[in-house]
Amino acid sequence: MKLKPMDDRVIVTRLDDSTEKSAGGIIIPDTAKEKPQMGKVVAVGSDAPEGRTPLQELVKAGDTVVFAKYGATEVKADGETYLILSRSDILAVVE
Question: Would you identify the CATH topology of the domain 11-94?
Answer without folding.
Answer: 10 Kd Chaperonin, Protein Cpn10; Chain O (2.30.33)
